[in-house]
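Weekly modeling sync, notes
Attendees: S.R. (lead), two postdocs, one rotation student

Agenda item 3: backlog of single-chain predictions. S.R. asked that every request posted to the team notebook include the full sequence so nobody has to chase files. The rotation student volunteered to paste the first one in as an example of the format we agreed on. Action items at the bottom.

Example entry:
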Amino acid sequence: NYSLSLTVYDKGGQFSERIVNFDIANTVPIILLEIDGESVTNGQEIKLTNPSDTILDATGSSDSVNDKPGLRCVWLLDNVPLYEGCNRSFSWDEYQGEDYRAELTLEVIDDDGEYSTMNVILIHPNEVQALPIVLIVPAISLIFLIYATINRFKSNNELEIPKWKS
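Predicted structure, as returned to the notebook:
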């Protein structure tokens, strides 16, 4: 919080004074992330098209005018520091993980220590999705119910007591 005072005097000794109160606040950086030219949002899952050469671009990130030139970008893959710099090339082959998914975190830090983070999930194009158990169990139950119902009606017709013709 600041106060600026300006007093102006003329030759006759008259004066005028003006006081202005103002606040200076440090704002956090705003992250703008593009992966292979596509804009992404926090928490988004991105299936990579070219895992051997993916372009990570955060040069569009912004902050107040005096902080923008000093922005630093730190990239983490599964919480392990990977790169520094706002425009990087990523290769899945350099990453030694066994999974076909990884969490990419971007931290944009200004020269006053304020920072913003963004997390996205990178998915390798060769990932194979397992069948979800949540769908398998109801499907098997439905098939069994249909089978039991059909057999019940079929068995009702076959077990009728034969009648003698008179």
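Discussion: group reviewed the output briefly. The chain is about 15% helix and 35% strand.
Action items: rotation student to repeat for the remaining queue; S.R. to check formatting next week.
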